[in-house]
Amino acid sequence: MTSLAQSQCDRTAVHARAEPVQAPYPRLVLATCILASSLAFVDGSVVNVALPAIGHALDAPASGLQWIVNGYLLPLSALLLLGGAAADRWGRRPLLLAGILLFGLASLACALAPGLPTLVAARILQGCGAAMLMPTSLAVLGDTFSGEARGRAIGIWAATGAIAGAVGPMLGGVLVDTVGWRAVFLINLPLAGAALVLARRAIPATPASTVRKLDLSGALFATAGLGLVSWALTEGSGRLGWSASVAGGAGVGVIALLLFLVVERRRGDAAMMPLAMFGSTSFTGLTLLTLLVYGALGGLFVLLPFVLIQAGGYSAAMAGAALLPLPLLLAVLSPLAGSMAGRVGPRLPLTIGPAIVAAGFVMMLRISPPVSYWTDVLPALLTVSIGLAGAVAPLTSAVLGSVGADYTGSASGLNSAVARTGGLVATALIGPVLAATGSALVGAFHVATLCAAGSCLAGALAAFCMIRRASPGTQAH
């Protein structure tokens, strides 16, 4: 999915203190948070362009390529909420420093990985680092700025993330073509080094909380459940098929997720995912919408560059540049869509937007060799961009308006985690496409685009049926 869309999910997950922390260099604080979060934004998009080169160099099967992506998404999906709570518990500055350091070291390990298992393990560590630094960087902004300045700082943070996500695939493609795939991980090192230096200088120490306890048991069950289900979907749709071991792994994963719900229910408001939020029909519908639409997008941004390179004969740089119009158009149209949703309410935009995205996926059926960018790829991407722009900003506002004030931080953080979980599940299912070659690859890609269109239409239906009508500016409980 695009970094702009992700940043829209993340930008409201700010647990600010009652009074801003006095920082001697507030502009340096903003620069630090931008650099830190850019690590995750760039890495979330740049690796997709490098997948064909990595697969060729490491002789990786389709399931291996899937785990290069999901190794990063799994801890980020499962531990994102825990990362925000850990920042409250142990302090923003030490956790941000630890997250940046872990991400930088893991990036070096990715670049030096001698084989697939080491690369996937390093990607998992990258995801853990991202789960620490992303919510913490936003919390630091919430601590440092207040009022109008806080909104402006978060807006700059989100816009910079969009730019990083837009430039990332094209930059990654150039590096793959000229230096090699390992360079896409090495570009994180100067960013991490600069962020560490700035963080030590600019971010003041804040008192840690001795009251809030971490939901470690919930995080353990969520990680185990998502990991096992993702593994089962990957192998079940790939070389192993639904063997007894794969089905057993899926069953254990489902049990772990059910235990996660039991733990969260017992912890009540102290849970990393308070279940009371799902007492709102609108919030439940918005969560389902997020899972379905962002799942479709997560599959798209892995498969489209792969197909353009493998079947269309594009270079990695060309495939990265091919995606550029989408985040740029999102950046232009999302504010307009947010204003419109403020006038008419979120239900209509969140129904129409995903339906337009589905139409864009159907238009991708035109993509087949010889692939013309201007007639086959660009019209579909523009259609997806228009539909997504109509949904991203209204979704953020609707999530906050669907729960009470006590749950706004948890709701926005959960929405961001669910968006990444959608990408995790989608990536686990695309093995048959990544394993195909020649005309079979194009045919499998077309099947995947139709499935993505159906997922978006289901999301639109969830929005229409479950988001309650509410006057603009009111909460839809």
Return the domain count: 3
DSSP summary: helix tally: 18
The first-level CATH class name of the largest domain: Mainly Alpha
Amino- and carboxy-terminal Cα gap: 28 Å
The oligomeric state of the chains shown is single chain
Largest sheet: none
Measured as a percent range, the helix fraction is over 70%
Please state the average pLDDT score.
Answer: 84
Q: What proportion of the residues form beta strands (DSSP E)?
A: under 5%
Order of helices and strands: HHHHHHHHHHHHHHHHHH
Any idea of the CATH topology of the largest domain? Answer: Growth Hormone, Chain: A
Report on the structure:
- It is a single chain.
- The chain has 477 residues and is an all-alpha fold.
- It folds into three domains: 1-203, MFS general substrate transporter like domains (Growth Hormone, Chain: A, Up-down Bundle); 216-271; 277-477, Growth Hormone, Chain: A.
- Helices cover 79% and strands 0% of the residues.
- The protein has 18 helices and no strands.
- The protein has helices spanning 3-10, 26-58, 62-90, 92-112, 116-144, 147-178, 183-186, 188-202, 216-236, 244-267, 281-310, 316-322, 325-344, 347-363, 373-401, 408-429, 431-435, 438-466.
- Helix 1 runs antiparallel to helix 6 (147-178), helix 11 (281-310) runs antiparallel to helix 12 (316-322) and helix 11 (281-310) runs parallel beside helix 16 (408-429).
- It is globular, with a radius of gyration of 21 Å.
